Amino acid sequence: MTNGHGQHPEQSYAGETGDSIEYADQRRGYGIHPWKLTRSGLLPDDVAASETLFTLSNGHFGMRGSLEEGEPRVVPGTYINGFYEQRPLPHAESGYGFPESGETVVNVTDGKLIRLFVGDSPFDLRYGTTHSHERALDLRTGTLDRSTEWTSPNGQSVRVTSRRLVSFVHRSLAAIEYEVEALDDNVYLAIYSDLLANEQNATASSDPRDAAVLDRPLKSEDSGARGQQAVLLHRTRRSKLRMAAGMDHVLEVPQGAETTIEAGGDLARYTVTAQLPKGSKLRMIKYLSYGWSHRRSTPALRDQVEAALAVGKLIGWDELLEKQRAYLDEFWQHADVEIDGDPGLQQAIRVSMFHVLQCSARAEGQGLGAKGLSGIGYDGHTFWDADLFALPMLTYTKPSAARDHLLWRRNTLPEARARAAELGLAGAAFPWRTITGKECSGYWPAGTAAFHVNSAVANATARYVAATGDREFDAGAGTELLTETARLWMSLGHFDGAFHIDGVTGPDEYTAIVDDNLYTNVMAQANLTEAADACERNPGTASELRVTAEEIAEWRKAAAAMAIPYDEKLGVHAQSEDFTKRDEWDFEDTADEFYPLLLHYPYFQIYRKQVIKQADLALAMQLRGDLFTPEQKARNFAYYEARTVRDSSLSAATQAVLAAETGHLDLAYDYWAEVALVDLGDLHGNVDDGLHIASMGGSWQVAACGFGGMRDHGGVISFAPRLPHALDRLRFRIRSEDRVVEVQVTRTGQEQTATYRLIEGESFATTHHGQPVELSGSDAVELAVPAVPQVEPVTQPARREPTRRRPQR
Amino acid sequence: MTNGHGQHPEQSYAGETGDSIEYADQRRGYGIHPWKLTRSGLLPDDVAASETLFTLSNGHFGMRGSLEEGEPRVVPGTYINGFYEQRPLPHAESGYGFPESGETVVNVTDGKLIRLFVGDSPFDLRYGTTHSHERALDLRTGTLDRSTEWTSPNGQSVRVTSRRLVSFVHRSLAAIEYEVEALDDNVYLAIYSDLLANEQNATASSDPRDAAVLDRPLKSEDSGARGQQAVLLHRTRRSKLRMAAGMDHVLEVPQGAETTIEAGGDLARYTVTAQLPKGSKLRMIKYLSYGWSHRRSTPALRDQVEAALAVGKLIGWDELLEKQRAYLDEFWQHADVEIDGDPGLQQAIRVSMFHVLQCSARAEGQGLGAKGLSGIGYDGHTFWDADLFALPMLTYTKPSAARDHLLWRRNTLPEARARAAELGLAGAAFPWRTITGKECSGYWPAGTAAFHVNSAVANATARYVAATGDREFDAGAGTELLTETARLWMSLGHFDGAFHIDGVTGPDEYTAIVDDNLYTNVMAQANLTEAADACERNPGTASELRVTAEEIAEWRKAAAAMAIPYDEKLGVHAQSEDFTKRDEWDFEDTADEFYPLLLHYPYFQIYRKQVIKQADLALAMQLRGDLFTPEQKARNFAYYEARTVRDSSLSAATQAVLAAETGHLDLAYDYWAEVALVDLGDLHGNVDDGLHIASMGGSWQVAACGFGGMRDHGGVISFAPRLPHALDRLRFRIRSEDRVVEVQVTRTGQEQTATYRLIEGESFATTHHGQPVELSGSDAVELAVPAVPQVEPVTQPARREPTRRRPQR
């Protein structure tokens, strides 16, 4: 660990833990710190990855962690949630209902740029001499901090420090504190603080998971500059969305400086030139503001951005910092997950939770994208995993963010209803991938056919309502979402004795267009029941939605009759009808380099064999665990574990949860590390394109649902905590209505003890490994953790076992 | 019927049958004639259809029936078999093994053009006064004949007659006899006889079944003109294929004429100007020659085309005509199907057979396209139906053409082997659609997954070998084709007790990616057995192909263990595993205008319901009829008939054959008319894009296999003739090795009698409704046809019953 430099008191990266643990999957240059993600030096190969990992965002807009000085950079993206451009979706052979246009997130005007010239030389770490270069994403201050000591090619030395934030409290504001200290005499400086639209793009890729790269998506509409402030206004060419970016500055220079401001077309620039005596500092605060609209006029948008800048300046840098810290203190106070025994994992879990918070906190009216606002991977689209992997964490730690996403789903109901109608279905068919709510999937067997996205919305809705007791939401958006998704299932399925849902694709994308996917069926079953309950709870809303008693009865009838495929011969549930009769994949003969399989084998081969991309039945056993006996879970887990290749980052979290439940705690621990390090360790090789937000949400799920054993079947919360050998302690807290509940499990020798405590609220009833627990006041309840039952070892496909996590203390 | 005009003795269209029967599905303007397709007058709506129906072709190249004068026209196409251009195949989301480029037939240099100017006026039937305009495709002379009497807008009258042929005997030659007779005094004429490349295209369509329209696909490479001859040489831009078109002329004008010749770029022109006294005629013979190559040089190709023109001129028009007639006389002598009782159907069957012959007769090294050489529908691609619907007719009537197609399949084995390897399979995977042998399908669930195309090649191979006794083919291409297709099945299927083939698409494209499609399985079963037999017959070839005794044993083992899905509860075979458990389609609520379903419903809806696009299990019952009892056939036919919507032109022929076999003779008759009239009646609304060659081959199959009851299971030919009520007599002839066998069935009151006779050959053994029949010498064997067994009526989906064919005598 090389994180001690101590030159900047606010940015002391010296490991607070004092140790120097390293892991095989720890990336070079990154340091371990309980509350920071730190990195020393500049590695050319890591530029794009660090841009992703150091992303700052508040859910409304996000800025990748590129350097203020602009270079070196790979993808210096800035993204506004919901701001997209249309692009054609070409089909080699078109078909009815194939979407003809897609949506792609746009790299909007870059406001991070503060180009620095020292004497004649651009400040660029690839030239001159870098004495130190330290960066840190601080999870408590909510800032991206850097400090660089550098000597220019012509011998002048400076120390550049910067601190950047995207405000959680003021959602259209970002700010950068930028300081240059002269380490030599009479250093001449020039600073160009820019707004730059239509930045050059990185080159396109042929990986189908990547995004469509748009060339110069923005058309200049207006610009203006006065004093230290400038604004650029642009519009997208096809989607016709308008955006404004503004900047304002506060400058402190001991001996004064020359400044100019200008704006036009794609560039606005505030120029500062100054001469610094040795030891003196130039300090500049750059305020940034973003706004967009599909209907507001150019002047209105311009005024909006300028007003935000004025507010920002009035509040001032220090107060912005304080508010940011206070916001995060409040979050961590009730959300933090603590573990003892693995500082690297501790860091990764907090980084993960921080990014999930960042991409959702202030989304307000927009969805939660698969990459958050950290990159253009997956075109910036939102998928089902937002609802099932990110929302559980938010529901129990930051419910307002979960609510925002669900309200966005509700707001896209017109598109989802239209899509259902286009498909000949009732209710609402939520899109597989989208920005605005319109289906943007170009490959229907793994898009349109994956109707389980509707059950994800319903599941998240029901969970949110149960966890928060948000009656207003329940009576409005909640009941509407549950009703329209329930209607979809009724039109999609049919009774034949049992209720069958044929021709769909479940979460496992290596098996497509199947009958009675168990996951889809049991999730639809819950959806139908929850819709019936919601309508009965909210008869007024139900009546507005024209739900009749007969309709509710049909929902309950279908739920009761739901087909649940089971292979009697093997004694396991079938992922879908006849799945277990399929040919086996030849894992022994599939070399490492043939993963992910989808890039090396045709779909038809993958679909017809027993090879599983990602947890499917396992996810059903997590979310509908009350339907399975412990013995069934154990047998099913072993069967599917042996056939799951984890080619999706969505898999390991669920496998961890089920591994923990079925007594494979060390396997669960290995999976946890895989989940939490998916981006820090770049385990899928594409961190450059953005964060895996679902996996990051999964990190929390493994804590709470895996080692915490938390379940919320039917809205009733239960726990069954248990630690793996590597950990000595786990503590997490969840919100439930007006309460905050703390669960802690500790190890003493072979014994494990769980402690339950109310942090807020008056009383709470739950269970501990099935045993009732009543919490009231601040009294802790301490209970022994039952011994792990004897379990048969499980295996993964050849060469697909997770990396064993072995800290090298 | 308005086909008597009598002005041109050679083109007397006067109905030889003397009656005037009309049918609801008879198209306006077309007349009924036993040996001609005639049409009177010019209907703007029918221009494209008549261009298709009047196509002349010899399998090497084809010319649509556009008028010599060039206008009016919609698609004046000329196509050379195998001559294509590449085009990109875009995918909204790409995937491993998705083809990235496609192939599209090219409209090559048009040589039909003979533009005529009468005085100042272009000869164009949309202007001036048309007194008569008669055209006829003559099925015995193999010519397209026309006669037009017309007065120009400025009052000068002419009679234009023309006769056009594409030579069956000289495969690179076409010729046009063009006569203009002055009906007024001193008519000034100008004639532009052209070669024109890169003709303007019709507008593109959004129907996925249509072709990609290429804009200016040809690049000029060279041109030359001398005397009355001119040549244009072009090359495609991407596929880099070179082609040459040449023309030469012989002119007869009573008082002489001025002529010039010129050539350059995309146009070559022979100009004739003359003055004709009343009653005199200008007569011109235009010889046309086409050649192409992917490796021959420009000079070589030019010489080739000029040599062909020289030969053509030497032979002369009259001899070309005679040879054409002789070729067709020989064909009809052994191939004709005669029926009494339905002259319209009689005509349609002969037109169909004529077009199948035209598109295959001289293909020599190229495949038999779905549209022949009559249009750009389906991009000019060859599909499985060539092997299964067109080849049976050719095998039994023109075996050399069947052989040509199969040799093309053999020549594309390198591409098919490469495709199999790309897909992770053994042997050869023949493409779903192609020109060169490379897969060009852009939608894999109905392309790549339809592996039954391989069994179609194998089936055609085995049939050809059995029917012809062609030992050389059997020992070479035949064994190779059967072996490589058999190997594909072994790698595609797996043993699990039974041998299963999962994740494939059968002929019914409304059901995709299923397990154990019965058709695919039983066809694969035959394929495996035939491959084993062929290798045992031809041990030398087998050894060259590295076939071992163990491999053959595995083939036989898989064939013996083949899974054949059967629904015990319903007592019917299942089209695929669990098919009969699927939800039913709501036919009652599907209005007429929602057909074809694929243009109005998403695939996912169609795939998961019991709705069948085209005969699938029925085709299995035809081709593998020996696997089913008569009771099973009856029950299966009834079950699937009620769920088959016939959205494919490939369906009705098979339904007709099975309807006839199961005793529904009048239904079979209705289907026969639908099959035979698919283009003449434009029943699918897309005759403009080209002929439905498979359906045309199906017309013959309904005669031979439907009402003739002919089967060739295991290479053994049997008959079970039976007439529907509407017909009094059916006669057809088939070749079997060195024999020609005639089967005739006649009706006398309620009794039907079959007569079997050898036209060529010494002896032949067959069966009549199961009863052994031995033919020898020219002795006819007359046998009573057993009475039709009592059958339950069958039904079709609501509003999808075939039109009842009721002649209005």
TrEMBL record, chains A, B:
Gene Ontology process terms (BP): carbohydrate metabolic process
Top-rank taxon, per record: Bacteria
Domain Glycoside hydrolase family 65 N-terminal: 40-294
Residue span, Glycoside hydrolase family 65 central catalytic domain: 350-701
Residues involved in substrate binding: 384-385, 613-614
Pfam families: Glyco_hydro_65C, Glyco_hydro_65m, Glyco_hydro_65N
Region ranges (Disordered): 788-809
Keywords, comma-separated and alphabetical: Glycosidase, Hydrolase
Active site, UniProt feature: 509 (proton donor)
Gene Ontology molecular function: any one: hydrolase activity, hydrolyzing O-glycosyl compounds
InterPro entries on file: 6-hairpin_glycosidase_sf (IPR008928), 6hp_glycosidase-like_sf (IPR012341), Gal_mutarotase_sf_dom (IPR011013), GH65_N (IPR037018), Glyco_hydro_65_C (IPR005194), Glyco_hydro_65_M (IPR005195), Glyco_hydro_65_N (IPR005196), Malt_Pase/Glycosyl_Hdrlase (IPR017045)
Annotated Glycoside hydrolase family 65 C-terminal domain residues: 710-775
Protein family per UniProt: Belongs to the glycosyl hydrolase 65 family.
PANTHER family linked to this entry: GLYCOSYL HYDROLASE-RELATED (PTHR11051), GLYCOSYL TRANSFERASE (PTHR11051:SF13)
Stated name of the protein: Alpha,alpha-trehalose phosphorylase
